[in-house]
Amino acid sequence: QVQLVESGGGLVQAGDSLRLSCAASGLTFSNYIMGWFRQAPGKEREFVAAIMRSAIIRSYADSVKGRFTISRDNAKNTVYLQMNSLKPEDTAVYYCAADRSSYYRESWRVDDMDYWGKGTLVTVSS
Predict the structure, then answer these.
(1) Cβ pair 96, 38 in contact under 8 A
(2) So what's the pLDDT on residue 56?
(3) What are phi and psi of 46, to 5 degrees?
(4) pLDDT at residue 54, rounded to an integer
(5) pLDDT at residue 55 greater than cutoff 90
(6) Hey, how many other C-beta atoms are within 10 angstroms of the C-beta on 84?
(7) Helices vs. strands in the chain: H and E counts, helices first
(8) Cα separations (Å) of 70 from 42, 64, 102, 125?
(9) CA separation, residue 109 to residues 12, 38, 76, 81, 112 (Å)
């Protein structure tokens, strides 16, 4: 059974940093593209970042480029999202997701992902 478990969310002030983690089990982690999505209240779930299996190629939504960094540790079956210079508009539930394909995309859709975590809440106050 595949499990993706996010952690690291919380309440921070604008300009602060947070690092989210997602621990994966039940799958061959190094064979999956890993991604982060987020969903703000009343809005659709949206792509944030993705990292290819080799960890060399990464993709980001324009709204987070230069502020967020996705990384992975295949030995630990974990993907991370370092979030710097947080803004109130970054407030959302952040989801980790896994894509079993090997196709690079500039942006991933919700339907592109095969497995999802339950999410972790990030709240950024102004």
Answers:
(1) no
(2) 86
(3) -130, 150
(4) 86
(5) no
(6) 14
(7) 0, 11
(8) 25, 11, 18, 23
(9) 28, 12, 26, 18, 5
